[in-house]
Amino acid sequence: NEPVEGSKKKLIERLVSSVEEEKQREINIAKELEHCRIRDVEEKGSVYGIGRNDEGQLALGDLDDRSVFTVVPALRGKAVQHLSSYGNVSCCLTPNSEVYTWGGNGVNPIVPETTTAEFNSPQRMTKLDGEESVMTAVGSTHACSISKSGNLFVWGKLGTDDTKESPQYIDKFTARSVACGANHIVVLTDEGDVYGWGCNIGSIEQSFQSIPMHVKIPEAIKLISCGTSHTLAASESLVYSWGCGDGYRLGHGDCKDLSSPREISALGGEGSRILDISAGVWHSACVVETAGESGCLYTFGAGCFGQLGLGSNCIAPTPTKVEGLSKVKRIFCGRTHNAAITHDDTLYTWGSNKHRQLGRKIQETEVTFTPHPGSVDEFGTMVNRIGRGYPASVTCGDDFTLVATHPYTGPSEKEMLELAEMKRRKELEEKEEQARIQREQEEEEKRQREIQEEKEKIYYLTSKRLCTLDESCPGFTYDSNKPSICKECG
After folding, report:
1. Which whole-number Å values give the CA distances from 56 to 52, 141, 304, 353, in the listed order?
2. Which residues of the chain fall short of a pLDDT of 50?
3. In Å, what is the CA distance from 66 to each residue of 45, 70, 224, 351?
4. Contact predicate 47/404, CB 8 Å
5. Contact 398, 334 (CB under 8 A)
6. Angle ∠(460,462,467) on CA atoms, nearest 5
7. What does the pLDDT look like over 65-74, one tens digit per residue?
8. Environment class of residue 270 by beta-carbon count within 10 Å: exposed (0-12), middle (13-18) or buried (19+)?
9. Among residues 4, 183, 326, 400, which one has the fewest Cβ atoms lying within 10 Å of its Cβ?
10. Angle at 231 between CA 347 and CA 333, to 5 degrees
11. 3-state SS string over 124-181?
12. In the sheet that 164-170 helps form, which strands lie side by side, from edge to edge?
């Protein structure tokens, strides 16, 4: 047997320390395995939320605000394709047609059959199972879903109608797209026709309409969007607006209300193509492609929190181009902030940042908003050792933002570490090379100084200088045999 060194007490201490180290090692291994499991799921495509959360609008299972984008655990790896929200309520759609809703502080009929402990996390609309939903839209107290075959379902409470706890099928048309305002619904059919009901739907003067009515627009429509109390519709090259005109939100240069669609003369036209539209509360936005430029963003309406993106200008009676942001393909208007996705899948945000809903730092220090679009760098990269895909869908609610991502296709953690190490080595090599060049420059400068000093010394010794002792002396004359003695006087 090997002799045991140290006292019995020290031996016990060593044994205890060894056991604790082994336990910690096992804990670390378990943590790493759990991290890898979560990473593999999350990188399939997830939903991230940021900003205000006092009514469960971020679906994180609590009521705490977030200042950084945080993954929604219940939607991790769901590869959500579509997000929609209004106020403090949101809805999402997964690739297998599952519809989830959340928020509303537990009192909004859009999120049915929930307790106060459930509204702050996604609740599956099981009554839509089997309907093959492909799109959703959310209003203040009502929501809609469209199936793959174009069937429209509505639930919640719209205006003076009774509350529909279960989705109700609207047998009127084959729907391609749907949008919701505070108290109205607008539907785009496969034929490019528009129908609406509720308030501010166009084509009627009544304050509220309970059944879908055809909205007359002189050409086929391909895009629709609803603000709180106004609506936008776009054909291939033109944009129309109607509803409440307060704050110039309709883009016609005045604040008049419109009961029927009117073309926004300052947008689109021949040679243009409308890529996207979005209606907020007091403002609207449109993405236009022209022969010379693609993805130009125009905003109009009122925006005292910088949501127009027009610098110090808080009012835009007609569409005005947002400078510094190009190649936009999607635009999402919220109440006081906006988000946009460009052709390279970069996410930009601007407007109010009171609850950190922009997901980035702003340059302004005296106010909590910015009129300058800025990129959010947390997508299409790795965050906390987990890959985040590029944005697939975005929704801007009241002081919060939700982002659904595509699956992550970037380098793995190992590859990122290798790339980081390669970058570190390259930077070190560049630094060493710069230091070598600096040393060589300094040595060359020293050598040149020495040469110059030697030249000056020789010049001093070989040049003629007046003698201070003998005025008749022609001056010091260099003697090659005796350099330090004057040739004439020596």
Report:
1. 9, 16, 26, 19
2. 1, 202-205
3. 20, 7, 31, 17
4. yes
5. yes
6. 75
7. 999 999 999 9
8. exposed
9. 4
10. 20
11. ECHHHCCCCEEEEEECCCEEEEEECCCCEEEEECCCCCCCEEEEEEECCCCEEEEEEC
12. 133-138, 142-147, 152-156, 164-170
- C-alpha 92/C-alpha 366 separation (Å) is 36
Question: 438-447, pLDDT tens digit by residue?
Answer: 999 999 999 9
Which has the closest alpha carbon to 295: 311, 313, 272, 316?
Answer: 272
Residue 121: closest CA among 106, 102, 105, 98: 102
Measured CA distances, 399 to 26, 35, 364 (Å): 43, 31, 18
* Cβ atoms of residues 47 and 93 within 8 Å: no
Pairing of strands 337-342, 239-243: unpaired
- Residue 293: what pLDDT? 85
Residue indicated by tokens 């049915």: 112
Residues 47 and 78: beta-carbon distance below 8 Å: yes
Convert the pLDDT of each residue in 7-34 to its tens digit. 788 888 888 888 888 888 888 888 889 9
Q: Which of 227, 246, 243, 327 is nearest to 285 (CA)?
A: 227
Strand order across the beta sheet in which 283-289 lies:
273-279, 283-289, 296-302, 315-321
pLDDT in tens, 95-140: 999 999 999 988 888 887 655 568 999 999 999 999 999 999 999 9
The 3-class SS string of the chain reads CCCCCCCHHHHHHHHHHHHHHHHHHHHHHHHHHHHHHHHHHHCCCCEEEEECCCCCCCCCCCCCCEEEEEECHHHCCCCCCEEEEECCEEEEECCCCCEEEEEHHHCCCCCCCCCCCCCCCCEECHHHCCCCEEEEEECCCEEEEEECCCCEEEEECCCCCCCEEEEEEECCCCEEEEEECCCEEEEEECCCCEEEEECCCCCCCCCCEEEEEEECCCCCCCEEEECCCEEEEECCCCEEEEECCHHHCCCCCCCCCEEEEEECCCCCCCCCEEEEEEECCCEEEEEEECCCCCCEEEEEEECCCCCCCCCCCCEEEEEEECCCCCCEEEEEECCCEEEEEECCCCEEEEEECCCCCCCCCCCCCCCCEEEEEEEECCCCEEECCEEECCEEEEEECCCEEEEEECCCCCCCHHHHHHHHHHHHHHHHHHHHHHHHHHHHHHHHHHHHHHHHHHHHHHHHHHCCCCCCCCCCCCCCCCCCCCCCCCCCCC
Q: Which two tokens stand for residue 264?
A: 């926004």
